[in-house]
Write a structure and sequence with these properties.
By secondary structure, this protein is an alpha/beta fold. It contains ten helices and ten strands.
């Protein structure tokens, strides 16, 4: 069987891949527990390693990256883009590097840029309004990331902020979520905006096939962002994801 290329959903005429490569492992994010430090050793300031893994994932049919624009991750992506020029970038602006994030994502021609969860989840109305307005000027699509969907998403809806996408957690175990998965599914179905799922594998704690089957069968996600730290993880994870999110 040949390579299964990712399918897309459209927002305001722009195509977003349903399966995105997440970049949290490349920064050694805390959700990976004991492996976080190992990932830092593997990837920090090693853009060539990031490039090699990205290219392997692109070869499998993935055509999108959910980018945390730390400088070494951006460098790795820029190297990978020399081999693949059709990659859609959905970025997040970093809370401690807002201006740097905007510059890097603009240089990469990011299609969508989202407020990092560390910004969205503060519910700081003035800062959020200012940043969303700025993003709307600079990028085709804007959105929010949240780690606490049960609290944050209703607040954004109540405030009637204008944005296009939501990146939010969903997994069968309810790990890294502030509401049970069943309630999250109901919430996501009623947001009225495309939802990209994250934390699908709960930081590597869940079996990929079971986790991705649950995410697909929830019928509330338009796509998923999945981080991997090795070629073996990538082969297992993206083979399943590209098959299940092919609609």
């Amino acid at each position: 069987m040949g390579v299964i290329l990712t399918s897309y959903f459209k927002v305001k005429g722009y195509k977003i891949p349903r399966v995105l490569l997440g970049t949290s492992p490349f920064i050694g994010a805390g959700q990976f527990g004991e492996r976080a430090y190992l990932y830092q050793l593997m990837f920090y300031n090693k853009p060539e390693k990031i490039r090699d893994l990205m290219i392997s994932v692109f070869e499998m049919g993935v055509r999108g990256v959910q980018l945390l624009p730390y400088h070494w991750v951006v460098s790795g992506l820029e190297l990978a883009l020399k081999s693949y020029d059709d990659i859609v970038i959905v970025g997040s602006i970093l809370p401690g590097e807002v201006n740097e994030s905007l510059e890097r994502l603009k240089d990469l021609n990011a299609v969508a840029v989202l407020l990092h969860g560390a910004i969205s989840d503060t519910l700081n109305e003035s800062i959020i309004k200012y940043l969303l307005t700025k993003l709307k000027i600079l990028f085709p699509l804007t959105g929010i990331v949240t780690h606490t969907p049960g609290r944050t998403i209703p607040w954004f809806i109540e405030k009637n902020f204008e944005f296009d996408l939501v990146l939010a957690p969903l997994n069968v175990a309810g790990i890294f979520m502030d509401i049970p998965p069943e309630k999250a599914i109901d919430l996501y179905k009623n947001v009225g905006k495309p939802i990209i799922g994250k934390k699908i594998l709960a930081g590597g704690r869940l079996n990929p096939e079971e986790a991705l089957t649950f995410a697909s069968q929830s019928k509330c996600l338009d796509g998923v962002a999945l981080g991997v730290a090795s070629l073996e993880e990538a082969k297992e994870t993206f083979k399943i994801a590209l098959k299940l999110f092919n609609f």
